[in-house]
Amino acid sequence: MAAQYTFTDLRNINVGCHNVIAVVKFFKKPQKTKGTGYSMFASVSDPSLCGDKFPVIFLCNNIDHLPPIRTPGDIIIMHRLKVSMYRGSLQGCGPGSSGFAFAVFPGLCDSPLTPYPSPTNCSFTDADLFRVFELRGWYNSDSCPLEKELPPDVVMTEPQAPSNQMVPFAERVVPSTRIHSIMKNAFVNIEAQIVAIYSYPPEITRDIILSLWDGQPPPEAASLPPFYTHHDLDRPPHISDSRTDPHLAAITGHSMLPANEDWSVTVFVFDEHAQSAVAKKLKPGDLIRIINVHCTGKLGHVRRKLDVHGGGQKYGRRIELLTEETAPPDLVARLKAGRDARKPITTPSQSPGAADLGVVRCLSSFFAV
């Protein structure tokens, strides 16, 4: 029977040797050291840190003996983790000797409580497994304060190509999420078509607001909270500062149907991402991919809000312009199916200049399928 270890909450960590069970917030792939070994960096957290993180460096001469962390959210048990001061802050070190041992468990709630295969798995008890179960539930809950950003190699990988050539979609690996299925506290990639673009006078802000759709929402979206929109802002953008595709607005019900029937979703784009060369060229009707969108809870967590925060280059955060040739085939198919499934609830106004402003005239508050 495995011995029961005493574990330390991360907020109580001090210089010395500790046993820890924690969630992996971020990690880097193993790297070759200047010597003969390998190193791997990770930051871990638990509820006691209230959203903060604790850095850990793993060292080993055999790369196969490093922790088999696969994705943020994995749970790691560490025995005899050495903690010392490094550049004025506490840092954990898991050397490949001195009795350090570990076990890494998948972070998905429906995964079995079985560690990833490793030649150096440590022992654990039923009480330890229950703590792993608790941490998985905490990390995947709406109340978890951790930002769940993915490292670049998980966010997106692509083959090398000359900078003036576009890599075909078939050669790229870009995990993405349906917009209406995004869960709160998640960082995801999305692919969609622009329905409308909202902005403000430059003396107020250079941030922009995108209204997107990616086809008819999946059935499970009906059980999720509606999205926060530009109408919920204290100072929503003026119609004169907007550009809208009237036909797409008519198909999606953008800004005209109740939130649970509007197929469009609002994304708020900040700082350099709103002023990037790609963002300045965007127009309604364009197909785009956004890497590293953050979903948070707003208005007392009764709404979901999608943000493209400033910064985040180390996570690959950016907006990409797609074409029908480079867009995922399933996105193009969903958009076509959505246009076929829903009759427009509006028609473009024929008044002079209305099309330029994206003004649409509502004919009915109902739609036919």
From TrEMBL:
Protein localization: Chromosome, Telomere; Nucleus
InterPro entries registered for this protein in UniProt: NA-bd_OB-fold, POT1, POT1PC, Telomer_end-bd_POT1/Cdc13
Telomeric single stranded DNA binding POT1/Cdc13 domain ranges (all copies): 7-140
Top-level lineage group: Eukaryota
UniProt KW keywords: Chromosome, DNA-binding, Nucleus, Telomere
One Gene Ontology term from the biological process aspect of the record: regulation of telomere maintenance via telomerase
Gene3D superfamilies: Nucleic acid-binding proteins
PANTHER family: PROTECTION OF TELOMERES 1, PROTECTION OF TELOMERES PROTEIN 1
Homology family: Belongs to the telombin family.
Name this protein carries in UniProt: Protection of telomeres protein 1
Organism: Mesocestoides corti (Flatworm)
